[in-house]
Design brief:
It contains one helix and two strands. It is mostly loops and 136 residues long. Helix content is 7%, strand content 3%.
Length: 136
Amino acid sequence: MATYDDLIHAVTNGKALPDLTGADLSSADLAGLPLTDANMPGANLRNADMRDTILRGANMHGVDAKAANLTRSELRNANLNDAKLRHADLGRVDLRGATLRGADLNDADLTSALYDCTTAWPDGVDPEAAGAIYVH
């Protein structure tokens, strides 16, 4: 299983991202990292600092990102199905094309998050009522 050090080594040396399936990245500083198309289903991202992280097209199915800070992150076309995002800061994130079916967004901050007609929300979530902004 890949570690935080494996990830940082790959990013800083321009190498392919390691498979982060089930990786423990809890409380990790991932702010601003380019993680486009990262494969991290089931990863532990609790309390991780992921501000401004580029996660376009990432497979984050079933991640545990409770209380993670994802402010201003790019999550376009990301798979967040069944993700645990309770108390996560998703303010100003780009969720256009993202799928969040079955995700736990209880008490998550969606203030000014961007979404479009292709964003798939969990049942019962009203993105506009949560402060998200629809982009045509």
